[in-house]
Amino acid sequence: MVSKINSFTIWGIDAYPIDIEVDISKGLPSISIVGLPDQAVKESKDRLKPAIKNSGYEFPSGKIVVNLAPADLKKEGSYFDLPIAIGILASLNIIKQSIIDEFYFVGELALDGNVRRVNGILPMVLKLKETNKKKFIIPYENSFEGGIVEDVDVYPIKSLNECVEFLTGKREIKPVKLNIQDIFKNREKYEVDFKEVKGQKYVKRAIEVAVSGSHNILMIGSPGSGKTMIARRIPTILPSLTLEEALEITKIHSVSGILNGPIVLERPFRSPHHTISDIALIGGGQIPKPGEVSLAHNGVLFLDEFSEFHRDVIESLRQPLEDGKVSISRTRGRVEFPSRFLLVAATNPCPCGWYGDNQRECHCTLSQILKYRKKLSGPILDRIDIHIEIKSLPGKFLIEEKEEESSEEIRKRVEKAREIQKERFKNEGIYFNAHMNTTQVKKYCILTDESKKLLQHALENLKISARAYDKIRKVARTIADLDNSEKILPQHILEAIQYRCLDREFI
């Protein structure tokens, strides 16, 4: 008798339905799994026998063939332990095939028959919502993650025996249902705040502009000037996540196995070490997995010590910064990972870190400084809209008990500017000024005559590329939005030019 079980596999961040066929016939006792399984799937046959026997059922003493269809799609992970075990028990007439047909199954089996959690439950539940069958049996540890999707009945089970008793009507298990709106209302507040950052008014303003228009930013300053402290507070001024954004992020985190809770409630803040590889940053592998740029989707990617990253790692950022996605091609297919993030990079001005500092002397030679700065290529710097210098604060500023502006006050202005952009681009397929193409820049970045003269003067005196020219106009558009100005005025152009310090000094 051949039994058929419904399951899922993950490719990229999307789930694909899988048919698992189990056939038991006479012959030497063996288990054979076909259908492009990886090593983790192949190892499931060594977990199946003890798991079934320790759950109180007899393991068949014949030839067992398991087919994972479609056969041309690579299968990986431990998702198929539970459905294969159910298929074996169905072939022994312990469970009726008509009952199994109503459900989808995923889960990893322990040797004692318990069911362990797996990654990628949310993409599977979202995919199941599109099918006719709406019942899903998953590990108990994944129950909250699966219960956030409406119109799908998710049944959490702790063991193989519990699953069999449920399918045979000996045990009642109620589907898990969570109210997402209630979860969103009870979000935790950030532990950090911009009011803890003393002084640095110019830097805070640049950060506000960057966040308002989703402009990438590079901070250059000596050690201890506050670059990392400021960067870690950027999520506190970002608008709250929408449900659609939260689901996008949760899918990525679920597949990556880093999901903590039923759904992501705060915008991601990823800060990888400068020794990271290009694959770990961008994503990839034999079976492609999301990298840090995708884990930071709809959030912040902070690259501290930016100049210390390997050159090939920095250059690999070109596509995600330009397109907002990562495309990875393999012999088995092509995968796209979303990677629309706000890049916040920080670096020292020279190898010793004290060039231009008011309090300490730099001992680097000119050739050392130039060599250090050339680690950041022109194409990468062109893709970063805002470059600002951060100066160390004198001791008197640190001692003063001055009330600084809070994150909540800054966030209100950011939200207002983003609402203007949302209305402006409602029919354009984008959301922020930073994402405008050349045609949209001409359409929406309207300059006054005096603004045009100022920008022309800057082009003649600064070695600005065509891309950097567009960046200045986009940043000026965001500054105008913060001022609630329809046109880009001279002061907006002047401020935008100030945020290109590398065009003035690093040449």
Can you characterise this structure?
The chain is α/β, with parallel strands linked by helices. It folds into 3 domains: 2-178, Ribosomal Protein S5, domain 2; 194-426, P-loop containing nucleotide triphosphate hydrolases (Rossmann fold), CATH 3.40.50; 436-507, Helicase, Ruva Protein, domain 3 (Orthogonal Bundle). It has 24 helices and 18 strands. The strands form 6 sheets. The chain has a 5-stranded parallel sheet. The chain has a 4-stranded mixed sheet with strand order 1-2-4-3. A 3-stranded parallel sheet has the order 5-8-9. It is elongated and about 85 Å long. The termini are far apart.
Query: What amount of the residues lies in strands?
Result: 15-25%
Unreliable stretches (pLDDT < 50, length at least 5) are: none
CATH superfamily of the largest domain: P-loop containing nucleotide triphosphate hydrolases
Instruction: Describe the sheet with the most strands.
Output: 5 strands, parallel
What's the helix and strand layout?
Blueprint (H helix, E strand, L loop, with lengths): L1 E10 L2 E12 L4 E5 L4 H4 L1 H11 L8 E7 L11 H11 L5 H4 L2 E3 L2 E2 L5 E2 L4 H9 L5 E5 L3 H4 L6 E5 L2 H8 L12 H6 L15 H13 L3 E5 L5 H5 L11 H14 L12 E2 L7 H5 E2 L4 E2 L1 H4 L4 E4 L7 H5 L2 H6 L1 E6 L2 E6 L3 E6 L18 H8 L4 H5 L3 E5 L4 H5 L7 H18 L13 H7 L4 H13 L4 H17 L7 H9 L2 H5 L2
Parallel strand pairs: 3-4, 5-8, 8-9, 10-17, 10-18, 11-14, 14-17
Antiparallel strand pairs: 1-2, 2-4, 6-7, 12-13, 15-16
Helix pairs in contact: 9-19, 9-22, 21-23, 22-23
Keywords:
single chain, 507 residues, alpha/beta, Ribosomal Protein S5, domain 2, Rossmann fold, Helicase, Ruva Protein, domain 3, 3 domains, 5-stranded parallel beta sheet, 4-stranded mixed beta sheet
